[in-house]
Design a protein that fits this description.
- The chain has two domains: about 35 residues; about 200 residues, Rossmann fold, CATH 3.40.50.
- The protein is built from seven helices and twelve strands.
- It binds glutamine.
- The site of glutamine has 11 residues, from helix 6.
Length: about 230
């Protein structure tokens, strides 16, 4: 008798738990499907902006805009500045009035993620160069920091603040490094020899490598989460 009543009671509990967890799942799905769609722009003046767009299109509830004018920037909740050639991108930014437009949006708190050339353009100081830069981060960068012999390389990088326990496969192409950080700049990743390759300060995030060139969407997802939290 006791055994059988226990059995019944267990079965009841089981049904109840499963119904509850089903409900929770449904609520979670509803909450997720109701999450706000955000618009992320990718600066499309030069360089590998297509790869960033492809990455963003794999994420949920994200619209993308190729940004080549202040009007296009106005539609964005966040901006990615991709890899390319930083002197060229800097000059084109100025030519199209995007220099002032990006700085104005940054001051209003729009999140910006710079990769490689994007990192260079976000820096306040560029070693040995007076090329145009936005200067939004209190960092000094060294362009082409790995020299001609090491044009490009890949390495597993720990980025605990963003990417849990599993390292990120980081692709470096004629990459810069951050040679100095000041103020409240946070170092997010270093190479094994200590070179700084990912930083954040306020609404700006910057990486010396190319997260758009692997299959791993975690860094883009992190940026989209930051953008969503800001809107
Ligand atoms: N070396 C380039 C520059 O100085 C950056 C390279 C890249 O974006 N992959 O602008």
């Amino acid at each position: 008798m006791t055994v059988s009543s226990q059995t019944v009671s267990h079965t009841g509990d089981y049904c109840c738990t499963s119904a509850k967890s089903g409900l929770r799942q449904a609520e979670q799905l509803a909450a997720e499907s109701e999450q706000r769609t955000v618009t992320v722009g990718v600066l499309g003046l030069q360089g590998d902006f297509e790869k960033h767009l492809e990455m963003l299109r794999r994420l949920r509830d994200v619209m993308t805009v190729v940004v080549r004018s202040p009007e296009e920037l106005q539609r964005c909740d966040g901006l990615i500045i991709p890899g390319g050639e930083s002197t060229t991108v800097g000059k084109l930014m100025v030519r199209y009035g995007l220099d002032r437009a990006i700085k104005a949006r940054a001051q209003q708190g729009m999140p910006i993620f710079g990769t490689c050339t994007g990192l260079i353009l976000l820096a306040r100081e560029i070693e040995g160069s007076d090329q145009y830069r936005l200067g939004l981060m209190d960092i000094t960068v060294r362009r082409n920091a790995f020299g001609r012999q090491i044009d490009s390389f890949e390495i597993d990088l720990e980025i605990p603040a963003i990417c849990d326990a599993r390292p990120v496969r980081a692709v470096f192409i004629r990459a810069p490094i951050v040679s100095e950080v000041r103020g409240d700049v946070e170092v997010l990743a270093r190479l094994p020899d200590g070179k700084i390759v990912m930083v954040r300060q306020g609404n700006c995030l910057a990486a010396a490598f190319h997260p758009e060139l692997t299959d791993d969407t975690r860094i883009h997802q992190h940026f989209v989460d930051v953008v969503r939290a800001q809107t």
